[in-house]
Amino acid sequence: MEVLLEVAHEKSSVWIDKWNTQNKIVDFKTIEKLDEGCNIFKVKMGEVNIECTWVENQIRTSSPSHIEVTVAIFRHVLNLMKFSKNIKLDLLLDSNEVSVFPVLEGVTATALRGGPFDTTTVEAFCLKYPSQKSIVLVPKRSGGDLNRNSPILKVEEICFHGPEKSIPTILESFSGRVAFFCRAQCPETSIIKFMRTWMTSSIHQSLEVLHFTLDNGFFIYPQMIIKEFETETKTWDPTKRPENYEYDTKTIGLESIEKTINCSNFLDIERYNDGRLASFLVTPSRFEFYVWNINCMN
């Protein structure tokens, strides 16, 4: 079972996902003032007293501290439901609101929308939620290249939707399991270096999935990469690995994408130190890289 808190500037919702069925249990809206003549009642959630009305299954409040009230309600729901894992936080807020957003204990997945966000804000957010297993960044990230020691690169699963220039640094320093980029800016040399490093060193030991599409106006030459590894790649051998690669992700927004990948047309490379296989596909606009579990290899 999972619980998701969505927070926007003036509206919040709490969702419960059980057996892949998502149900909204709280819909919370902030308005400038309560209507005259409406029935006003007070509810205490933790340390917060909420003055509100109930209209069409929706809680409405004129509280100037929308986020404070929202967090109080969410904590109350968590306490009632006895949740301790799979707590997701989806924020459609600006940079300042994200910076002052209260810490929620036990959050395992986050998404930052709205923005814009600079690198410092995103890194501070990652440090604020050390228990998160995944982070999604929807808007463009400003503030220059990522540092090799950035806490963003320590998160287990990352997904960037905006244009991303730091792909070379990410390919060198990402220590997580799953990475998706929707508008990457990456030269062929960085892909070659990443693959060579994966094959010959102990870096990227946890990596399972790397997938990126290129930003508008950016292209790569597949033959340049394929030629670099022409003596080390092999086509699919059914005696070595299955045809389909399967993986799982809890990243917000990726739950519904196809997680069974037909790799019969992919090329395979082998890691020297343990014989583990990875399958890759490269086109002018896309690069996919999947590492096989040693137990799946025949």
- H-E string: EEEEEEHEHEEHEEEHEHEHEEEEE
Biggest β-sheet description: 15 strands, mixed
Structural class comes to: alpha/beta
The tally of beta strands, per DSSP, is: 19
Instruction: Give the N-to-C terminal Cα separation.
Output: 34 Å
Mean pLDDT: 85
Give the uncertain stretches in residue-range form. Answer: none
Summarize the amount of helix as a percent range. Answer: 10-25%
Write up what this structure looks like.
This is F-box associated domain-containing protein. The chain has 298 residues and is an alpha/beta fold. The chain has 2 domains: 83 residues, no CATH class; 150 residues, no CATH class. The protein has 6 helices and 19 strands. The strands form 3 sheets. It has a 15-stranded mixed β-sheet. Strands 9-11 form a two-stranded parallel sheet. Strand 1 and strand 2 form a beta hairpin. Helix 4 runs parallel beside helix 5.
Summarize the structure.
The chain has helices at 66-81, 95-99, 119-128, 167-173, 188-200, 222-228, and strands at residues 2-7, 11-18, 21-30, 41-45, 48-55, 58-61, 87-93, 107-114, 117-118, 134-137, 141-142, 157-164, 178-184, 209-214, 244-246, 260-262, 267-270, 277-283, 286-291. By secondary structure, it is of the alpha/beta class. β18 and β19 form a beta hairpin.
